[in-house]
Please model this.
Amino acid sequence: MSSYKMPKSLLEQLPEIVANGRKQAERILESLESRQRVRLQTREVVLPAKDSAAQDWVTLQQRSAHQAVFAPGQVSLLPNTQATLGAAPEASAPTPWANRLIYGDNLLAMAALLAGDDDTPSLRGKVDLIYIDPPFDSKADYRTKVTLPGVELEQKPTVIEQFAYSDTWSDGTASYLAMITPRLILMRELLADTGSIYVHLDWHVGHYVKLVMDEVFGKDQFINQVIWKRGHAHSDSKQGSAHFGRLHDTIFFYSKSPQYFFAQQFTPYTQEYKDTYYKNIEPETGRRYWLDNLQGPGGATKGNPYYEVMGVSRYWRYSQEKMRQLIDAGRIVQTKPGTVPKYKRYLDEMPGKPTQDIWDDLKSLGGLGAIVAERIDYDTQKPESLLERIIRASCPEGGLVADFNGGSGTTTAVAEKLGRRGITTDLGKPACMIMRKRLIDLEAKPFLYQAIGDYQIEAAKATLGRDFRIGDLSQIVLSLYGALPLPPEANPQRNLGQIAGVELNGRRGSKTLVLADSPNKLTGTATLKKAIAQRDNLLGGWDRVVVLGWNFEPSIGETITALNDDRLEVLVIPPDLMDRLKKKGGIDKLRGQVRFSSLQYLTIHPVQRATAGETDTLTVRLKNYVLLSPEAINLDDANRAKLQEVANREPLALIEYWAVDPDYDGKVFRSVWQDYRGNTANDGDALRVVTSATVTTPAKTGPRKVCVRVVDVFGFEAEVVTSV
Model:
């Protein structure tokens, strides 16, 4: 007798998937009050200035209001930590709000938003509308195209970016549903009682996700299944195809409660519609009208009143009193004696045709009739008209819109244009850069660029359990680098290892000390000097020391140059290491596949400062940029060779975005001047990004601490801090 057991169908697995998702979400919700709750780190306060050729717009005359809201060193969104986002601000104490762009896993981002912190209250129950356009489980492979002078590179997504948008899942649809279930639960917690959620999917997995949403939000809160005709006539079927052309996406619309906000939307009447229905013209006024039905649909079963009007007895749509008012106003017409009276509906009183659940009037960004002007070269970009309809319908003016799969930034861009507040997140660095540039291009209100604080620690908790210690993570890093731990008596923090038999200056058998720094601190001057001292003195001394770091001080490149120690090497731990470890299922499976890369760093020319009256003018010029080791970037050999050639020939061409903070407080970077690749002001520049900046700012006495930050085409950051 065979013992073979049929594998469980997806439908059989679904209850367990939902149950596990609930448990995961409950653990997150239970941790919100703990000291170990997830926090957001403000990486940048962006003060958009589109024209890089113009003077800095942060001046006393023009931008005093923005200067007041985002003063140097201000991290808090709300000066009064007791204030609530839902309450109207007091006249004497205005409550500033800054839109947020968050880089990181949306599960962790939502946990941080729910938790709040000392500066920002929890957003639990504060979000009016959530729209997400998650991966479709289509098995697509979205590669990033990087354009450099004379070269176009194709970069494969990193492991962490694959999770974000590559549509690749280890267990197919089951793991996709396991991913999205706890996230939907946290989204429900963020929604206001009057809030709604729209989940944008297609035929691959939409029907399964709807079942999950029925469980999370309740079947009674399912409002609409919107069909968006995104394709043109041929779509994905050509002559000889074995299926009908796939033209549409599905958008599931759920509310949190029966008392949800909804503003009915209308589409303009076509001329054909006007000619068909509003063909009557009132001679006295020339107004077009339509004789509409007055009878109550459903009769008595729907509670419609029964009475006589103009000699005709029927179930009517209106009460007798309302009907008399309409007759007196000349709005009830009986074309012949004995015929059923009708309502005179004027065309100029109608906002348009009520929008139904099939949207075939919104053009896509591809195919025939595409909105070419909106395209920003992002594979899954959605048209602004789609988000405009959703936001107008389900978010009141001034309300808060969230998109936890930000992608190209359409949601946050449209929210900005419509006067709504916005939060958007993405796990892909290319997407975050696109969104940042898009908001700058809009000359949007100031916004925060944030990241998950101690992301590696949070990822380690997910992989190793909540009780792990930093030493456990250091041991993993040392093992993957190939170092054996030092004896406990010489290694109390468990962050030191050794490698023997390394060739050094042509001599074999040299000893190498390896230090794995903590992810919750910045690796900088103090760490490097300590590592050098340990190399020279610990256990009789070592031939060289390697420092492995997660996060680095902005001036780390300058520090390494100043130390000028050829027996010191500083390497970067891959930021997605824990995500890769979780995906591979253990250290042994990952060993030999991890690349520890050299640091990227920036150098600038001395900053020039000129004071005239009440203004300071700063001239900042970029000098050189050294890219993170090309071996650490997910490129094939051919693309890596192309990159190396550009890096050698013109390293500043690798810069995607750079900004200047003329009053850096050492905590939060305020980008009061910025330039970026693709800025239309730079179309004549060979690199498509300028290499010098002139920043005009109110004068101050004493030295200024100036910080220059660059982001390269792969999303890596580097900074220089100088006093002038």
